[in-house]
Design goal:
Length: 517
């Protein structure tokens, strides 16, 4: 019987992988050798490069390269291919900045990785606390709390705020997870209206943009499975009229949480934060915004899209990551002091995770300092955004530029042809994006030079000319956003921009006062 069950699992795995491959959706890992001098350059073994172009598995000759010093020797270097990365989220090139590397190295030399324990046990150091205070200052909040990843931060925020309180406090780590209740079948002889009246009203309603990051959706699902009456409702992307219809239908006395990305990671467009702020003032819901891709990229001082749109005071919960423009690792939530305390006591993803290594924290702190002293980095990445948009004739609202080609095959083909030229621009396919909207996702960084970006644009134009069956399609909502004055390539570090935002926030007065939560 044991052998038969093992065979069943083997059959299941083989069948699942076969379905993924047949749909051209298989993903594999390719070992790169980072170039320590640039955040947007890497080396790849020639055998791995060939396998990648042929969509084959990684050859055994490439498995031991990693960061082996031998990779720097002349003999091995001759076997390496240099790639220019348009695929990372390191928007300001911080991961390879000398000051950031020096801070991480110094911390590692002094304390190693630091106490290896959860933050609540022994892993929280003065370095962690200083970073939290600096992040709170960046976002203009009372406090902040660090998380192991941005994903963990999103899951904790939504799960904690959408859960139903209980006297015992946080759910024990070994507690059984109840099965989600399915919608009941209509009982015999009972009218649908009567059956609906018998169903209890939800105590918490979570409203989520349909293009939100998976971690937001997972947090809402976790809350629904953890007990209580939690309703997850999805509103059409950036459709404030649809959202207001859903809000108007929420029963009085129901806690309501609206959560959205500020800069959407696959389309590169922004949430209508001004529209959300107006609805918040009208309906009194809690507003949580994930600024993962906008922190340090947008706003006069890098405060994010909420600062850029002059609505930071209307955001109750600012969620972010240290692994994108900050160039390190980890996540954070900037909020009130009492919400920080609640997350620390109820957020399972922080309670049961080891604290961030001290060198990572030191690197993040150094990146924040560099961001303040080198505002040209924000200005340069927005300049490159404008350049790509104009040269390719595609709308671009941010440094994340989607080149939509439609099918999986077309995206993979174009990506591999660029890879053959030394450009890494990944093909994005379902389930990350909707079927029929497969794309190349161009991510720009201040570490890119204008010459490098122009070289990519030229290569794209040449390859598209050789592939008449492949056509770039524009997403309609991107064309609309690019026309909006406050989103047209803001010079995020300019003094005039900062003054204008401060004046607008002052004019809002009491209407935009920060929630006490």
């Amino acid at each position: 019987m044991a052998a038969a069950r093992t065979q069943q699992w083997d059959s299941y795995i083989d069948s699942s992988l076969s379905q993924i491959r047949d749909a051209q959706l298989e993903r594999v890992l390719r070992p790169l050798v980072p170039d320590g001098s640039s955040a947007v350059q890497a080396l790849l073994h020639v055998d791995e490069h060939k396998a990648w172009l042929q969509a084959a598995a990684s050859p055994d000759s490439c498995t031991n390269l990693a960061l082996d010093p031998l990779c720097r020797s002349a003999d091995v270097a001759a076997e390496m291919v240099q790639l220019l990365l348009f695929s990372t989220n390191d928007y300001l090139g911080m991961s390879a900045h000398p000051a950031v590397k020096a801070a991480a190295a110094e911390a590692a030399a002094q304390v190693g990785c630091g106490p290896r324990s959860s933050a609540l046990v022994a892993g929280f150091t003065s370095e962690h606390r200083q970073l939290e205070l600096e992040l709170a200052a960046l976002k203009g909040t009372q406090d902040a709390l660090l998380f192991p990843t941005g994903y963990a931060a999103n899951v904790a925020v939504v799960a904690v705020l959408a859960s139903i309180s209980n006297v015992a406090g946080a759910v024990p780590a070994n507690a059984a997870i109840p099965v989600l209740q399915q919608q009941p079948q209509q009982q015999q002889g009972m009218q649908p209206q009567q059956q609906q009246q018998q169903q209890p009203q939800p105590q918490v309603v979570v409203l989520s943009d349909e293009l939100n990051h998976a971690s937001i959706i997972d947090g809402a699902r976790l809350a629904a499975r953890a007990g209580g009456q939690v309703s997850l409702q999805v509103y059409r992307h950036n459709d404030m009229q649809h959202l207001e219809t859903l809000l108007a239908a929420v029963a009085p006395g129901t806690r309501c949480l609206v959560v959205t990305d500020s800069l959407f990671s696959m389309d590169g467009d922004f949430a209508d934060l001004q529209g959300l702020a107006a609805l918040r003032r009208r309906y009194g819901f809690l507003l949580a915004v994930d600024e993962a891709h906008a922190t340090l990229v947008c706003g006069a001082s890098g405060g994010g899209a909420a600062v850029m749109m002059c609505v930071a005071a209307d955001i109750d919960v600012h969620i972010g990551t240290l692994s994108k423009a900050i160039g390190a690792q980890g996540g954070f939530v900037a909020c009130s002091s009492k919400l920080r305390a609640l997350l620390l006591n109820r957020g399972r993803s922080v309670i049961y995770s080891t604290a961030l290594p001290v060198p990572v924290v030191a690197a993040a702190r150094a990146a924040l300092q560099v961001s303040r002293s080198e505002p040209w980095r924000r200005q340069h990445v927005w300049h490159l955004t404008r350049l790509v948009s104009q040269r390719l004739g595609v709308p671009a609202a941010s440094p994340v530029i989607p080149l939509v080609v439609g099918s999986e095959a077309a995206a993979l083909q174009l990506s591999r042809r660029l890879l053959a030229r030394g450009f890494h621009v990944p093909a994005i396919r379902p389930p990350t994006v909707a079927r029929g909207t497969c794309r190349l996702r161009v991510c720009l960084s201040s570490a890119h030079t204008q010459a490098q970006v122009e070289a990519l644009v030229g290569a794209l134009q040449q390859e598209l000319a050789l592939l008449p069956e492949v056509r770039l399609a524009a997403l309609p909502h991107l064309m609309t956003q690019q026309q909006q004055e406050h989103l047209r390539y803001p010079m995020a570090g300019s003094h005039s921009s900062q003054q204008q935002q401060q004046q607008q926030q002052q004019q809002q007065g009491d209407v935009c006062t920060r929630s006490k939560l």
